Amino acid sequence: MESVIRGVVVYAFLFLIFRIxxxxxxxxxxPFELVLLLIISETTQQAMVDSDHSVTNALLLIMxxxxxxxxxxxxxxxxxxxxxxLEGLPVRVxxxxxxxxxxxxxxxxxxxxxxxxxxxxxGLERMEDIKHAVVENDGTISIVPRDGG
Length: 149
Description:
The chain is of the alpha+beta class. It contains seven helices and four strands, in the order αααααββααββ.
């Protein structure tokens, strides 16, 4: 039972940390972030298994973590409020070709990143050619071009 409790606590803690870290943390992985993720996974593994390295304990932890994932998925499906809290909402950083610096700073997105996404997806080179740019729940940037753009 201790392994189940450890698994739930670690899952909840990691969920909270990644939720606080923001959408952009998961959208882009630099070498630094990859190393950080590997270190976190090793630390997490040690925190969950303690001194019990048995196959039974590993299977129990896997079932606990997958079970938590399924339960959260069902909760998100049934409750819009829970879904908003667990996943957040898309956030618009460009409205009618105008960069919103305050929102961009809060989302840790730079104007250059939006222009890169606009070039990559629609061949747009100027902010004025973008009707809307949105940071999606997964941290990616969606571009809606202006009509005729």
